[in-house]
Amino acid sequence: KSQHPPPPPTPPPPKTPPPPPPSAFRHPSSRKTHTEKETAEAEKRAEKEALAAALPSFAEDRDVLLRSSVQNGDLADFYYYACGEEGTLLRLKEERNEGSNNDKFGFDKDWLDDDDDDNNNNNDAVGNESKENKKKGSNNNGGGKAQNNGRKKKKNDPKRNNKNNNNKNNVSKKFVHNESIVRIERTLHELNESTRVPVSLRLSGYHPPPAHRRVLGDLAYLEAAMPDGSATFVTAFSLGFYVNRSTASAFDPTPMIVSGNNNGKTNNTGAEDACYSHSLLDCLLQRSPSLRSSWAAALSAARERSDLLRELSLSEDSLYGMFRPAASAFDNNASGPAASAIAGGGMTLSVPSTFVPRIDSMVVRPSWLVPLPAEECGDMVGPRVNTWDHSRLHSYHVGEREESMMFGMDVRGGGLRDWNEELQTAREMPVENFGERIERARLVHKVLSDFGDAALSGTKAILDGYILPMNPNEPLRSHVYLHNNIFFSRAVDSGLDTFKIVQGDGAAKKSASRDAQNMGVLHRLDVAGLHTLATVLVEYLGTRIVCQSVVPGILHGEKSHSLLYGAVETLSALRCDEEMHELLESSIGEGCMVATRTIPAHPLTEERMEVIKKYRITPTLEKEGEGDDDKDELIRVCGPMEMKGILGSDKRRYVLDCTRLTPRDANWVGRAEGGTGCWEDASQGGGVKASKHIPSTLDDDEWTVCVLRPELVTNYAEMKISKYLAEHNGDMKDSDKHKQVKEETQVPSEAVEESSTPSKAVEEKDLVDAPETKEEGSGSNKLSKEALSKVEEEYIKSLRYNVNVFLPHTRSIKTLDTGAHEKLKQDEEEARKLARHLWDTVLPNLTKEIRSSSGNGLQLPVDGRSLTELIHQRGVNCRYLGRLAELARKEELEDVIAAERASSPDPSGRAEDAPRSKAPRFRMPLCWLEMLECEMVARAAKHVLDSYVSELGPVSAAQVPAQTIASFLSAVVSVGEESAAETERRTASKGSRAVLDQEDMNALTLFGVGGGEDGVIRGRDEIWLDIEREIGRRYRYTLSLYNRNSATSSKKDVRDSQAMYTPLLRRICQRSGIRIVAKHYKMGKKCVCGGGGGTGGGLAACHPIAPTDILDILPLVKHAASVSGESFVPCSFDGNTAGSSTSLHVLLSDAKTVYEFGHANLSNGNAGNVAVTLDCAQEAAAMYQRVLDSPIHPQISKCLKLTAVAHYHKEEPELAVAAAAKYLAVSISLHGFDSAEVLNAHLTMADILLGSGKIPEGVKHLRAAQFLMEFMAGKNYSGISSTYYRMGSHYYDAGKLEDALQFYKVAAARRSEDRMFDCLIARNSAGVLARLGQFKAAFDHEKKAYQLYVTFLGDEHNATKACSNTLIQLMKLAVEQEKKSKIQEKERVKENAADAVADQIRADEEAEEAQPTKRKKKQSKKKNKK
Asked: What is the rounded average pLDDT of the residues 548-564?
């Protein structure tokens, strides 16, 4: 019985049930269905209400259009908007406006004091602090000039730190989840300050040890300054360290005794009696009590910081984790490479001696916009003040790092690195299996990455004057340097001694860039037996340095190396070794479609040779009479005639000076010299707007190096092959054969990275279209040759181009070889046809494609970099930007004329129902012309600014380059120059702390000591004149949007507001390596340039950009081995030098093949192919990461994007969001927060989140995309309208009608290129207005949509009929509402009249009642008188 459970308790008596509702008498099935419907509807309403509460509200006073940050030049809060943290910014501004001036940054110091009540009241913490601070008052010192703004460091408080060690995990977790970004950053800042131990260590003045102490075992003498200010001298010996008795005035290396007899003397000194330890730190801790106290406090703060960082990493997503340091108002909370945070490693914390912008810890390439640390509470958000006070951005640091003086040299292995031998050895490694290919790619990438860093460090040492030249007796421009086994030279005209075709410094700069680009093509071709040098170009303050590895034996005389191809000296004959020629023909000839042609061994004309002999400096090395016999000798070359082939002492064949792989552009050759004459015809026929800034001829040495794009050669050859096969094979059924022919004729391509077409040929930009699975050098040429007939092979060979056409100062071969002369004429004609095809077909087709971009799905570029990539993909050079702008201007004029015809009344008096002319559906995007002109101005401004800076002298002696740059930028972003009275009013209205005047400038540096020449600082008009001249010379174009003053524009029109100053400033800074402070700049207003004279060595006040706003000038680096399409990128001399090494080409065909196979499978769309795509993307990313040891690379970024899309197609939203977040983080690390790649990443993230039902998170990224579009491309960008429309649609679905209506209004105000899109906006706006009860306004919007539908779709279209029905209903509702409103108005009038009558009656009655009272008073008065 005991095993049985006890009986259950007696239940209470049942209560009387309530009477059943009426629905209970229905059928049970119907009752159940009705209940389920009600429950489902209630759940939907609850979800909708929760969604509406989660979405941010946009009140009427909120800046929906982002005017303050985009159009008004307020760059202080850029990172908040770029990361979608607009709500965070608004909350911080509200907190700032509430007060909290007592604390420097407005927050509670004792954030670690934890109790249970804080969990309930934590949300009101900021408000309570604000109220308390309001009561306490403000401690700010007003608007006086800052005399000493250095921040006082807080002393370590070990008691405070130890008090909270026990519960630090819970405190950190609560703190992270409930506090704002400013408080978190302030806490990190305080903890970092607490971890700083004020100790300096250096070699003592008594070092090195003398001989008599050296034999006793002393190795070194050190001196340490302790926190209490005392100095401690330490001896280092083989067993550790001990404190000696030395002082600053007396040398005594004997050990210091801390215990023993009183007089400090002992016969037996042991370790227990002295401050001795194997560790230097322990030795010092034994000696100094102040160091022990500071060290304990630092350890406690470090533990707290570690816990806080761990909680932050667990609670923050990747974007917010990058946004928080970038937008922080505190300096040096963290610094280090961005790869550590993204790869999952711990964040590197360091304390540099100089200020390192927080943004540099998030991106591998320095950003052009740098937020400075805050000085006071008002600087947490919004404009920074006192930006000119840079004294606190640098600290005293005695022990300078020894490696900083090595200038890139690595002697840890016992000697300097032989870069060339390392590179060639790595390239010659076996590739038989996958493991060998991985190791080869790793080693090649490692060598090239280290070479780029060493070249940058060596360039800094050369520019600073630390490295002596090899030829010190020659002029500075001709100096060459050999440092760290790297050969450095300036990209300038080398004179008459060296054999070359081009002349002038401008042509030499371009030639060096072309050479580096073609070296990259050969590197990516990866042809066995053909060797190239590691090449890096560094440009700084107008000086371009060429850095190359050294050919073995070239510096040890002619006997150690041999010239096989070309010529070095001008008077020497060209050479052609047969083995070298066959190697070049099999690589450059087949891979790059370069023809082999016969040329004279002495190619220069007699006139040119006479000039060279007359003015050359170096005497000729050839003997007298030598060369007369071989004057008419002919040789065969494959490639440019300036190219050189050298057999080094290591018996490898090297290619140098490969300046052309495509023909010269015949459009930029005068008609008299054999060109097409297109520019001459355009000028005469009105195709180019006449201007005094456009030269009348094309005679310019720089145009000698203007060659056609390899993409153009590829596309043109494909078109000719298609026609040939169509003529010979009928209807082209053999598609595989056509594909093989296409691969055979493809030019080496930059699209190999992401690639629409696989081949061995030209560098193309990346469109992520339909990639193939072939890899360059994979043997596809052999397969195609086996499949093709001999006739077809000969035809393909005939498509190769002669790259030595239209060259100046070259001899005619007519008298030497008639056949070769005829072939040259044919080559010139083919080059003219190709150039004509570019002018007549490619440029107009590109303009038409841009016009119909809304219909064909083309995403327009958002900035100059993406614009350059787009036109390069079409085979168009950047020098045709002017021609594209002319075509765009014509298209815009046609749109204006068509709109006027459609809107104007018919003058012929035809019937109203007669057909009339209508405007086209697609309009020319206004942003296209704006971006073209912005890019032209930015490119021209870079050249003009380089010339200005070069006038200041050598880089090491340049006088105040910030002054020149600030004056230049102020002129570019302004519309005029201020008068003295306007400047005085501006400075007086803002106060002394907001504006820098000349007195502030004079206090920053020494002035009045001479050295400043008059005219160095130019005025605005002079600067714009030089820019327009440069645009006219380079692009043969006259600006229509910029610099439109009263002299050029007599009437103000819409183009006066199309000048994009913020995108222009951003693009100029990016192309010139300028870093400016993130603050509010008044762009589009009048400026002060400080022109009209020299400054005497001092600074001149500029507006809106001051010299103190220029934080740094970065070098621009171009690596020859970078991925295709990569040009000059900004790097840093002092900080992270790996900016150019993060985009090196990876010589691993396996990864590329896997990625392209996965990309091709994604287009099919079924689940099986999506799974294959996912596997391929992940495998390719893993391969690349094995080579790079880092996720920061463009190819890995593409793999992450493909992974996110594949997860989304597999309906795995969580994994898709995670992959998209990684894609966004890697894109930011690679390209910064403002780039086309980051914009695409935000849009991808928004699409995945919105498609997964995470509307608030998706709206955040969509809002960031809106800001970036307008920030980079201006307010007329074509994609802005659609993003606002999407925002409005999501707010409409959430039931927030007022917010949705605001977004629809903005979308309607923005210009859309597709007029049918206006119908969608109008109809949705009508629906919102109808739900709000505004039927009249809804009818107007629906009527607008109906008119557009009728215009473009006709009356019989279903959409038109539906719109008509809606219009009729809205009209009825509007009429009824109007009737009701009239009736209500009448009733209201009647009520008002009745109220007025009642008031009158009431007043009369009161008056009547008052009269008897008056009579009684009068009678009583009379009685009293009687």
From this structure: 88
- For the chain, the C-alpha Rg in angstroms (whole number) is 38
How far, CA to CA in Å, does 1014 sit from each of 1008, 1094, 1099, 1205?
A: 13, 4, 13, 60
If one compares 560 and 241, the residue with the highest pLDDT of the two is: 241
Cα distance between residue 892 and residue 898, in whole Å: 10
Pairing type for strands 240-243 and 276-277 reads antiparallel
Taking the C-alpha atoms of 1123, 1126, 1128 and 1133 in order, what is their torsion angle to the nearest 10 degrees? Answer: -40
At 820, list the tokens.
């070769």
Cα dist. 868→873, 958, 1126, 1236, 1271 in Å? 9, 32, 11, 12, 18
User: How do beta strands 535-540 and 1110-1113 pair?
Assistant: unpaired
Quote the CA–CA distance of 305 and 308 in Å, as a whole number. 5
Contact 1158, 773 (CB under 8 A): no
Rounded-to-5 percentages of helix, strand, coil across the chain: 50, 10, 40
Is there a contact between 587 and 522 (Cβ–Cβ < 8 Å)? yes
Contact present, 355 and 329 (Cβ < 8 Å): no
Token pair, residue 758, equals 């696989």
Beta carbons within 8 Å of 190's beta carbon, 6+ residues apart? 154
Which pLDDT tens digit goes with each residue over 624-651? Answer: 444 455 678 899 999 999 999 999 999 9
Q: How confident is the model at residue 203 (pLDDT cuts 50, 70, 90)?
A: confident
CB-CB contact of 191 with 297 (8 Å):
no
Write the CB contacts of 1417 (distance below 8 Å, at least 6 apart in sequence). Answer: none
**Residue 421 burial class via C-beta count within 10 angstroms: exposed 0-12, middle 13-18, buried 19 and up:** middle
Q: State the residue for tokens 């339909």.
A: 770
Runs of H (alpha helix) within 531-641? 578-584, 590-592, 606-615
Is 706:668 a contact under the CB 8 Å cutoff? yes
1265 close to 1246: Cβ distance less than 8 angstroms: yes
Average pLDDT on 698-703 reads: 88
**Maximum CA extent, the chain:** 158
d(CA 1191, CA 1197): 8
- Preceding omega of 1104 cis (within 30 degrees of 0): yes
Give how far Cα 851 sits from Cα of 885, 890, 1055, 1135, Å.
13, 12, 19, 44
The region that residue 213 occupies, defined by phi over 0 for left and psi between -120 and 50 for alpha, beta otherwise, is alpha
Question: pLDDT tens digit string along 903-956?
Answer: 766 555 444 444 455 678 889 999 999 999 999 999 999 999 999 988 877 665
Using CB atoms within 10 Å of the CB of residue 362, give its burial: 0 to 12 exposed, 13 to 18 middle, 19+ buried: buried
pLDDT at position 890: 93
Q: Is residue 1416 exposed (0-12), middle (13-18) or buried (19+ Cβ within 10 Å)?
A: exposed
Per-residue pLDDT at 1065 exceeds 90: yes
Three-state SS for 237-275 is ECCEEEEECCCCCCCCCCECECCCCCCCCCCCCCCCCEC
Say how far apart CA 600 and CA 811 lie, in whole Å.
Answer: 8
Question: H-helix or E-strand containing 655?
Answer: strand 653-656
Spatial separation of the C-alpha atoms in residues 271 and 274, rounded to whole Å: 5
**Structure tokens of 1279?**
């994609």
Question: Is the CB of residue 358 less than 8 Å from the CB of residue 347?
Answer: no
**Count of C-beta atoms within a 10 Å radius of residue 468:** 11
What DSSP state is assigned to residue 617?
A: S
Predicted local confidence at residue 987, as pLDDT:
79
Q: How far apart are CA 76 and CA 948, in angstroms?
A: 29
What lies within 8 Å, CB to CB, of 569 at 6+ separation is 497, 498, 499, 620, 621
